[in-house]
Design a protein that fits this description.
- The structure is a single chain.
- By secondary structure, this protein is of the alpha/beta class.
- The chain folds into 2 domains: 60 residues, Ubiquitin-like (UB roll), CATH 3.10.20.80; 90 residues, Translation Initiation Factor IF3 (2-Layer Sandwich).
- It is built from 4 helices and 8 strands.
- The strands form 2 sheets. Strands 2-1-4-3 form a 4-stranded mixed beta sheet.
- Strand 3 and strand 4 form a beta hairpin.
- The protein is rod-shaped, with a radius of gyration of 30 Å.
- The two termini are 47 Å apart.
Length: 166
């Protein structure tokens, strides 16, 4: 499938064999019982390498799996509070927030308002301040409760875990 008239050929040890026609390069690869693979098609002339293509694909997939093993995807978990939450419910939900932060997930804290609760957004800010105060050892210090504002019937803030807990 190599369409160029001339190709630069590199053997399986990494040595340059020079510039030759694709037919000669394929013959050279077949003599070594290997494949001719185009590695840089945009170069002038295109660069082809003599290699075991199946082994190359296998090693590439192993490297991809190995790199996936060490990565951690950060998900955003959401915990919803109400302005008139009881002490025990507050503690339970805040313990869930702490668990999520310890796992390395971001946590979105949402205060939901209903009816006449909308007239007192300061109650929601007080709850947000209590949550931030309770979890300040696990989350980054960049979250500011004063910037949280009412968006419709909800007030939200996002807590990010510290780097040491990821």
């Amino acid at each position: 499938m190599i369409r160029a008239r001339q190709v630069r050929v590199i053997d399986d040890a990494g040595n340059q064999l020079g510039i030759m026609s694709p037919v000669d390069a394929i013959r050279e690869a077949e003599e070594r019982s290997l494949d001719l693979v185009e590695v840089a098609g945009k170069a002038v002339p295109p660069v082809c390498r003599i290699m075991d293509y199946g082994k190359f694909l296998y090693q590439q997939s192993k490297r991809a799996k190995e790199s996936k093993k060490h990565q951690h995807t950060i998900t955003v978990k959401e915990i919803k509070y109400r302005p008139k939450i009881d002490i025990h419910d507050f503690q339970t939900k805040t313990n869930h927030v702490r668990a999520f932060l310890q796992e390395g997930d971001k946590v979105k804290i949402t205060i939901m308002f209903r009816g006449r609760e909308m007239a007192h957004p300061e109650f929601g800010k007080d709850i947000l301040a209590r949550v931030v105060e309770t979890t300040k050892d696990l989350c980054q210090a960049d979250c500011d409760v004063a910037t949280a504002r009412l968006e419709g019937r909800n007030m939200c803030i996002v807590l990010s875990p510290t780097v040491t807990h990821v």
